[in-house]
Design a protein that fits this description.
With 125 residues, the chain is mainly beta. The protein is built from one helix and twelve strands. It is globular, with a radius of gyration of 14 Å. 22% of the residues are buried.
């Protein structure tokens, strides 16, 4: 039974997990540049390592206490989070699927494991 490590965080009052191997960095909230015209998946730009990367419109959150920088395949983007909890390991046997999404129980709360393929291809968040 292979376990996968996930970074657990809270956004918009809900718990989420993103596979840790795709997390580049976590920073305290940093300056965010909102763009008037943009792809609806992204709400603006944020500076990361001397370049600007898009901020993903995750759950409509454009602000938070922390920013999670992610690289999935060749795409880099950021997510805002209200709280960062810890890194936890879950096996695929611990996850239950519903509406095309995987969930696990973390601290007695249903936690959605983010499918980065869907997220980056414009699928459901």
């Amino acid at each position: 039974m292979k376990k996968i490590k996930y970074l657990i965080f809270e956004a918009d009052g809900e718990f989420f997990g993103v596979e840790i191997k795709y997390v580049l960095k976590i920073k305290d909230n940093t300056k965010y540049f909102e763009l008037p015209y943009h792809d609806e998946r992204y709400t603006g730009l944020i500076q990361f390592e001397n370049k600007f990367i898009p901020v993903y419109n995750f759950r409509g959150k454009n602000k938070g206490n922390a920013v999670i920088f992610i690289r999935y395949r060749m795409e880099e983007f950021a997510l805002f989070a209200e709280n960062i909890y810890d890194i936890y390991e879950f096996s695929s046997e611990e996850a239950s699927a519903r509406n095309g999404k995987d969930y696990v129980i973390f601290e007695n709360k249903e936690t959605e494991l983010i499918n980065l393929e869907n997220l980056t291809q414009g699928g459901s968040d």
